[in-house]
């Protein structure tokens, strides 16, 4: 006996992906439920609360195209400001009534006879529920699960141990000896704030990042008012930001030599802000710009130049109850240790208990090196769609652009499925290996694999399964005009 669907679509997650998907479903008149494991909406910008947390993509670009906001005060916004924007979108579109808070996806099983997904959920009080849907959309986020480094003795540390992705609301570093491991995006934002509060800050650096000036200019009241009264001006501003940012894709993907001009500006920025030649040498990157994410900051280098801040470049080999031990045998005594060590790029996807056709395990696919088509669909998982799946992250512009392209793609496939009177839609299996080969070949020419660094962009086999090796415009075109012959409608 086949299962009857309770709703058209179940959406998992209430970050940018889930909220954008919900608005599209609501506009189309489809019934849907959103599952959110936390007690409030949001993803990255709800969970990341470390000092200095902000976005390094311009706010007028890092927002929905259907909900432009004239009131951004600065070019780049703090994390809490972006979270407030998402809250406002949820209220404006009346999405809260569709959200089941404190409800995590426990398991999902596909019924081939009806094309319906049965989704089991659980809550923090131990209660469980079941919902059935004709489609399952995963918006669980790629940068979600903290990466905890394998350091001998880390669990023995007697002081406060914090990962930047799980910063306690009541934690203060004022007057304490603080150590921070990592110098990536989170660290570059966090370190200036920590340096202000700490009695002494020790920065453990594995490799120096490329830093460009941020120039976080403030929008004048007059400009904000013009954007409010003339939305066309705001759309033009957004379009200009998009064109400028997307030009970087060519340099990252196939022409790393084009990054030389930007490298010179970054070196000038370092020389202007760091006068000590020994410290400047420590902070000079030794790999090609773009191999890791290029960071923006006007306050990072001045923080490292302070007399009460040390930059340690010897490898971290262990942790004791009293501090961090480096390869030269030095014990760096600290009261608090901050891990700015990033995220597991597989995100929550690799831990989802989802069973597709013939018992195929979604989690095993991700653990073994997931293969997808355009980062949205997978073979043998009908009526299942990923938002920000494999090879759809970006290192050069706003990922919200990718999310919106994927949402449009999902809506097109659902509409075509229903127009044909089919109960399921899925990618043709033979297209998936071809897309995987394309991603491997294009990534092989990129700065991410040719730039001489090790980054979270690449998996344990050195394969890029994280970033899209191209411009956003190309990706949008491939998703918004999909060929029906690429999919099976059954």
Automatic annotation (TrEMBL):
Keyword line: FAD, Flavoprotein, Oxidoreductase
This protein's record includes keyword DNA damage: no
Alphabetized InterPro entries for the sequence: FAD-bind_Monooxygenase_sf (IPR051209), FAD/NAD-bd_sf (IPR036188), Flavin_mOase-like (IPR020946)
Superkingdom in the source lineage: Bacteria
Coiled-coil region(s): none
Keyword Ribosomal protein found: no
Database matches in SUPFAM superfamilies: FAD/NAD(P)-binding domain
Any single Pfam family the record assigns to this protein: FMO-like
GO terms assigned for molecular function: flavin adenine dinucleotide binding; N,N-dimethylaniline monooxygenase activity; NADP binding
Family: Belongs to the FAD-binding monooxygenase family.
Protein name as it appears in the record: FAD-dependent oxidoreductase
Species of origin: Dermacoccus nishinomiyaensis
């Amino acid at each position: 006996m086949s299962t009857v669907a309770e709703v058209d679509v179940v959406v998992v997650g209430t970050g940018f992906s889930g909220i954008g998907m919900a608005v599209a479903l609501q506009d189309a008149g489809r019934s849907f439920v959103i599952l959110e494991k936390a007690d409030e909406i949001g993803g990255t910008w709800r969970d990341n609360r470390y000092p200095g947390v902000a976005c390094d993509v311009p706010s007028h670009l890092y927002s929905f195209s259907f909900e432009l906001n004239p009131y951004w005060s600065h070019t780049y916004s703090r994390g809490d400001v972006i979270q407030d924007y998402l809250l406002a979108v949820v209220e404006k579109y009346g999405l809260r009534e569709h959200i089941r808070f404190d409800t995590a996806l426990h398991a999902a099983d596909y019924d081939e006879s009806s094309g319906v997904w049965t989704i089991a959920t659980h809550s923090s009080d131990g209660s469980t529920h079941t919902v059935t849907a004709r489609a399952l959309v995963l918006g669980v986020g790629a940068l979600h699960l903290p990466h905890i480094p394998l350091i001998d003795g880390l669990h023995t540390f007697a002081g406060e141990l914090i990962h930047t992705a799980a910063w306690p609301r009541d934690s203060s570093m004022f007057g304490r000896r603080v150590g921070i491991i990592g110098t990536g995006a989170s660290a570059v934002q966090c370190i200036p704030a920590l340096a202000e509060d700490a009695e002494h800050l020790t920065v453990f650096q594995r490799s120096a990042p490329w830093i460009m000036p941020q120039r976080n200019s403030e929008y004048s009241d007059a400009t904000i008012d013009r954007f409010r009264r003339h939305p066309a001006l705001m759309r033009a501003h957004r379009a200009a930001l998009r064109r400028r940012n997307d030009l970087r894709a060519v340099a990252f993907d196939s022409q790393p030599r084009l990054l030389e001009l930007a490298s010179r500006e970054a070196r000038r920025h370092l020389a202007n802000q760091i006068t000590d030649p020994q410290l400047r040498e420590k902070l000079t990157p030794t790999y090609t710009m773009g191999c890791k994410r290029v960071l923006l900051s006007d306050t990072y280098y001045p923080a490292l130049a302070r007399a009460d801040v040390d930059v340690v470049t010897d490898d971290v080999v262990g942790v004791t109850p009293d501090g961090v031990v480096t390869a030269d045998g030095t014990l760096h005594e600290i009261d608090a240790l901050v891990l700015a060590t990033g995220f597991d790029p597989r995100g929550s996807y690799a831990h989802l208990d989802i069973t597709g056709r013939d018992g195929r395990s979604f989690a095993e696919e991700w653990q073994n090196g997931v293969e997808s088509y355009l980062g949205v669909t997978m073979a043998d998982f009908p009526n299942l769609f990923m938002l920000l799946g494999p090879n759809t992250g970006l290192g050069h512009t706003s990922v919200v652009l990718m999310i919106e392209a994927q949402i449009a793609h999902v809506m097109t496939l659902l509409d075509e499925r229903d127009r044909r009177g089919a109960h399921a839609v899925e990618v043709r299996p033979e297209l998936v290996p071809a897309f995987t080969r394309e991603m491997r070949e294009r990534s092989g020419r990129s700065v991410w694999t040719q730039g001489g660094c090790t980054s979270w962009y690449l998996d344990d086999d050195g394969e890029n399964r994280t970033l899209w090796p191209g411009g956003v415009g190309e990706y949008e075109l491939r998703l918004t005009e999909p060929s029906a012959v690429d999919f099976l409608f059954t």
